[in-house]
UniProtKB/TrEMBL annotation:
Matching SUPFAM superfamilies: Globin-like
UniProt keyword annotation of Iron present: yes
Keywords: Heme, Iron, Metal-binding, Transport
Name the UniProt record assigns to this protein: Group III truncated hemoglobin
Domain of life: Bacteria
InterPro entries, per database record: Globin-like_sf, Globin/Proto, Hemoglobin_trunc
CDD domains attached to this UniProt entry: TrHb3_P (cd08916)
Length: 87
């Protein structure tokens, strides 16, 4: 689990600093990244490890964001780059 926490910290730091998607997420999350990251850890722990600790609905909050295909493409690029670099 420690390696996943390390990976998530790296990944979400990249998201926060990204010129394209960081602006959007930082505007919504503001200074609540620690709280948001705890929720994200639970989400990914549920999805990837089958340890059901997340009980939310991730689509609804994201559907309200001004996201287009280019934003998802960047999110995915950051995601795969961090995975490739560390695994």
């Amino acid at each position: 689990m420690r390696i996943l926490n390390f990976w998530w910290i790296l990944y979400y730091t990249k998201v926060q600093q990204d010129d394209l998607i960081g602006v959007i997420f930082n505007k919504v999350i503001e200074n609540n990244w620690a709280e948001h990251l705890e929720k994200m850890y639970r989400f990914w722990q549920t999805l990837l490890l089958g340890d059901h600790t997340y009980y939310g609905s991730p689509f609804a909050p994201h559907a309200k964001l001004p996201l287009r295909q280019e934003h998802f493409d960047r999110w995915l690029q950051l995601f795969t780059t961090i995975l490739d670099d560390h695994f």
